[in-house]
Amino acid sequence: MTHIGELRILVPVDVSGTESPPLDVIDHLGAVEIVLLGYFPVPDQAEPALLRDQYGPKATDRLDTVADEHGNPAEVLVFTHDHEATIDRIADEYDCDAVLTTGRSTAVDRVLVPLRGDVNLDRILAVVADLLLAGNETATLFHSVAEDADPTQGELLLMGAVDRLVEYGVDRDRLDWRLSEGGDPQTDIVELGAAYDLVVLGETDPSLRERIIGDVLSAIVSELDVPALIVRDVE
What we know:
It is a single chain. By secondary structure, the chain is an alpha/beta fold. It folds into two domains: about 10-100, Rossmann fold; about 110-230, HUPs (Rossmann fold, 3-Layer(aba) Sandwich), CATH 3.40.50.620. It has seven helices and nine strands. The chain has helices at about 50-70, 85-95, 120-135, 150-170, 185-195, 210-215, 215-225; strands at about 10-15, 35-40, 75-80, 100, 110-115, 140-145, 175-180, 200, 230. A nine-stranded mixed β-sheet has the order 3-2-1-4-9-8-5-6-7, with helices on both faces. The longest helix has 22 residues, at about 50-70. The radius of gyration is 18 Å and the shape is elongated. The protein starts with 7 loop residues before the first strand and ends with a strand.
């Protein structure tokens, strides 16, 4: 799915309301491909087709407005009972590498990349390389080890990840790494993330639906003020 220099990102937008989502970040990601997913949540007792007949024109106008404001990317409009499952399905259908959450960032200069170990590591680094090669950002790779644990493995993980990105073609001067020995990665990521413009996180479960419904990653994303780019694990 991921090829260096060909990053495709799905951006879900709720088109049932009237407020424009904070999506300035997508104007600062460089030469990446955006797929804009407009979803209209449908109550369980209602028929999606009936709501589409009633609200379809307004939803289309809202999605078109968002697209016009951000370079007119590809658009998909869906009326759905389960928007989390829809995000996962459309990401598969359009072969997207990652999903972008909304958040306030008027520039993307500094990117935080938490790494949990070997989980989804190859795909995370490939996406980060795509992102950095498409723009001018710098990236900090981050790992948290348990309190009183030997930090050596974490240091090797981070240094190896930097080397991998350099092999992909990223200038080493644009990369650094940081290791925490506090044993609380969720808190560390949220606190560190406040100083960055974008946080790149690896999906922890086989589907975005599981991620959104209630795991630790969802809690991190909900606490971040800046956008998060969720790298999909399709294996």
